[in-house]
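Why Purine nucleoside phosphorylase? Reviewers of the renewal asked for a concrete example.
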Amino acid sequence: ETPRGTSAMYSYEDCKATADWLLAQTSVRPVVGIVCGSGMGGLADMLKDQVAFNYKDIPNFPQSTVHGHAGRLVFGTLKGRPCVCMQGRFHLYEGYAIQKITLPMRIFSLLGVETVILTNAAGGLNQDFKVGDIMIMKDHINMPGFAGNNPLAGANDDRFGVRFPCMSDAYDRELQQLAVDVGQELGYGDFLREGVYCVLGGPSFETIAECRMLHKLGADAVGMSTAHEVIAARHCGMRVFALSLITNKAVMDYDSEEKANHEEVLETGQHRAIQLEKLVSTMVTRMEYNNTNA
Ligand SMILES: O=P(O)(O)O[C@H]1O[C@H](CO)[C@@H](O)[C@H]1O
Ligand SMILES: Nc1nc2[nH]cnc2c(=O)[nH]1
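Here is what the prediction returned.
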């Protein structure tokens, strides 16, 4: 019997069945996979000639339960490049096992995706960051992983990847440089940053003491997603680029009147929607591809 809450929860065959089901319904053969962060679902609207599926109709797929995550998988082309976009992701605090949260990464890989672009909304711990800044993720701190909550826990299937994957090269350096170059060209230099993202389980936002601690530990931004997906994506050999939209400043001071809230997170997403779309779409057109579909 398949143990629950382990990477064997969805077998290779389960993932393949879902990928094959999707490939049978669309002629798009995606080389890029995009994950939309909270309030950033507009990224999916950039795709042309869309074929979209509600998560509830996709075999084995979890459902989106969070406001700002539509729950649709959208296939289409971005400036001619075949792409697939998750309009809505899954989080630990929704109650899903971590292997469910990261299942779409394995499906992306089986669809032929080479590069994953992940976006998220995050609180700014770095005191130089402002609301609306876009942080290129150069690394992560996987807090749930410290306690054993890693998407790769459980039996390893070598068809996905190795038992002990390296993470020191998780965030592709060339893609980070491409983001810097494209950001400069687009005139985004004033709000483009780079830094380290720390994932926590959520759904409660951080206490002041927690924010201070995370900052001291070297985190520039804090959120409740992405790092798990990055681990699963790297395990199966996809290239990864990720960015955080700083939607709020983490509260670090007992005198502060500020209170983190999801409404502010979604609003900031709306404000930066156009720039995020331009940055991502320009990067997609400039990337190198192995697959001839691109
Ligand atoms: O990481 P994404 O999905 O962008 O969402 C972020 O925003 C929500 C909190 O407002 C949390 O889910 C946090 O992880
Ligand atoms: N954990 C966490 N997630 C966020 N997502 C958006 N803002 C925040 C934040 O301040 N903390």
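The first strand starts at residue 32 and ends at 35. This is the kind of structural detail the renewal will allow us to pursue systematically.
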